[in-house]
Fold:
Amino acid sequence: MLKSGNTLMWLKSTMMPLKKKSKSKGNTCKVAIPMASTQFNERFQVPKVALTIIDQIVNSQEILLIESLEQESFTAAEAYPVLQARSGELWTINRVNALLHSAYKRGVIQWVDENQTNYKIGSFYTRLDIFAISEPDSYRALPRQTQVALDKWYFESYLNRLAPGAAVPTADRVVTLSQAKDYLDSITGQIWLNRCDCRTLAGNCDLPADVCISFRSGVNTFSHRGWSTPVTKEQAQEVLERADQTGLIHTVNPGGICNCCDDCCYLFRAQRVRQSNPTWPAALFIAVFNPDSCAGCGLCATRCHFGAFEQNDGVVQYYPNRCRGCGLCSETCPANAIRIVERRK
Structure:
C-alpha cells in the first residue's frame, strides 16, 4: 500500500453548483434550462446523451471561452479580446490566463504541441474522462441511467478510434504479476499513479480504482494536467501486488501498466467486440492445467475473469481457448496444478 503521505488525493470539484429544480404549486418542478448553446455543443462535440447534464460537466466561463473562439488554435493574447467583447465584462490578461490554466487542467482545452505556445479547443470525450477521474463523487451523483449512457457512448467512441482494419490496434499485452514487475523495473523515468477511468466510467464492479500506473508526462496527459500522483518504483510495485491480490489483470503498453477487470475495462470489452483473443491485447502466455494434481478447491474458477476454469460438482474443468495467460489462477493454486507457459504460435 502507499504510505499515508503519498496516498492518492483527488482535488475537490471546481464545478459550478448544480442548478436546483424549483417547486411550484401543484408540487411540480421546473427543469433548469442548460446554459450551453447549440454552438457550444457543436464545437465541443457534445453527444446527445450528455445534452441535459452538460452544465454539470463544464462551467459558464468555459462555455463562454469555447463560444468566443473562432480559430482552431489560439494564445492567451488572442483569447483576451474576444472574451471581453463577447462577455461585455472587463478582463485582464491574468484573468484570461487563470481561465485557460483551469480549462486545460479540466480537459476543456489542450495544448497544440509540446512547445506550449498555442491552445486548441478540446472535446467532450476528453473532458468526460477527466471529469470522471478527478471528480468521481460528482460523476457517481449522476443518475445511474445517465452513467450507463455516458459509458456506452464513451466505449463506442473508444472502439471507433481503434484502427478498424488493424488486427493489433495498440501495443497492449497481458502479463503475469512477475512479468509486470519486471516491466516496471525497466522504467527509468518518473512513474505516476492514476485513477482508473474505465472502472470509474463504467462502475460495473467494486474492485480498486486507484491502480493505473503511467509513465507519461507530456502535454495533455493526466500527469501534465495535474491529476496524477508521483510514486516511487517501490510504491508502484506495491500497487501491482495489491491489484493482483484483488484479482485484477495486468496489461502493459509503452505508456504504462493497467490493472484491469473484464466488465469495466475498455480493453477487454473491445476484445469481446472484436473477438481478438489471443491476438489483441496480445496474450503471449497460456495456462497449462494438470487435473491429477488438482485439489478441487475451485479458487482458479473464482479468480479467472474469462471462464477458463469452471468447477462443477467439485471437479475443475479447463477451457484453454478462453485463457489470456494472466496468471491469476497459477499464483494462488494451492496444489501447484497450474503453470503459465509461452503460448505456441
